[in-house]
Amino acid sequence: MTEERTGDGGGRAFRKVSEELRSRIADGTYPRRSFLPSQRDLAEEFGVSRDTVQRVLRELSYEGWIESRQGSGSRVIKNQRIQSSSAKASRSSRGATLAPFISEAFEQPEVALDVYTLTSESLDAHIRLQAERIRAGFIRPRRIALRMLLPSISLPLPYPRAMDDKDADLLRDRLHAITRRHTESLRGVLAELRTEDLVPDVDVQIRHAPLTPTFKLYVINEAEVLFGPYEVIERPVVLESGEEIRALDVLGLGATLTHHVGDADPDSPSSAFATSMQAWFESVWTLLSE
């Protein structure tokens, strides 16, 4: 019995498939130029209808992640890219994506992440992957400290913005639902690591600032900075109900990130950028957020 037949109405099933496929593209399970499983296989794996799978694939196609051709399947044409002068970016056999940076951070005894983002969708996918590694005994961090800055809920944002005013509330509610869902997921998965005595010290703080995010920022273990601007695009947004709304939006998961690490020269471009972005985060966290 699929989830759609249990009174859920298809919304929960749509979210489950959508979030899992995004997570697999983000962590390199489905690398660029690879093909996704067939619609039949995906429907069977997730216990959902073919219609749900088709709606999810349509959304991923609109967002530029995949291209679908009848008779050929769906192929990944984009994933998150990181440009870096550091050798670390090339260590992963899956290429330069966010996954190896988060993985290496969690391999340290103490993990410190400062994140500024529009939603917590990307980070949630990566943290859940690290939680699985911790439960499997592959890594054993003693402390995880996460500080995340999100835009104030009451702040009118320029994106996502419906091209038709009558759809404005639908897109606003969708954005808030995505943020709330992934924020709760992050809190929950990290709290479980502590209650299960897998990580002795877990500190999660989430604040909101009256700023529209124009870029995504990760400060990792107070040593590395990943930075990427949000690119505004016009695309159809697929709602859980299957309705499509034409909108201006940004693709956070697909933003190209640049990697900066401080070196022995505090005046080098990389050191100066990493230091300035860490100082920027601290100033907003301390003086503007709530």
Question: What is the compact description of this entry?
Answer:
This protein is an alpha/beta fold.
Number of beta-strand segments: 12
Instruction: Determine the structural class based on helices, strands and strand pairing.
Output: alpha/beta
**What is the beta-strand fraction?**
15-25%
Q: Please give the CATH architecture of the largest domain.
A: 2-Layer Sandwich
What is the C-alpha radius of gyration, as a whole number of Å? Answer: 19 Å
Q: Per CATH, what is the topology of the largest domain?
A: Endonuclease, Chain A
Shape field: globular
Q: In whole angstroms, how far apart are the ends? A: 44 Å
Main sheet record = 7 strands, mixed
Series of H and E elements: HHHEEEHEHEEHEEEEEEH
Biggest sheet: strand arrangement? 3-12-9-8-4-5-7
The number of domains is 2
Low-confidence stretches: 5-9, 87-95
Helix content: 25-40%
Count the DSSP helices: 7
Give a description of the structure:
- The protein is of the alpha/beta class and 290 residues long.
- The protein has two domains: 3-76, Winged helix-like DNA-binding domain superfamily/Winged helix DNA-binding domain (Arc Repressor Mutant, subunit A); 82-287, Endonuclease, Chain A.
- The chain contains seven helices and twelve strands.
- The chain has helices at 11-26, 39-46, 50-62, 98-106, 121-135, 168-195, 269-287, and strands spanning 66-69, 73-76, 82-84, 110-116, 143-151, 161-162, 201-209, 215-220, 224-229, 232-238, 244-250, 257-261.
- Helix 1 (11-26) crosses helix 5, helix 2 (39-46) crosses helix 3 and helix 5 packs parallel to helix 6 (168-195).
- Mean pLDDT is 86; it is low at 5-9 and 87-95.
- Keywords: DNA-binding, Transcription, Transcription regulation.
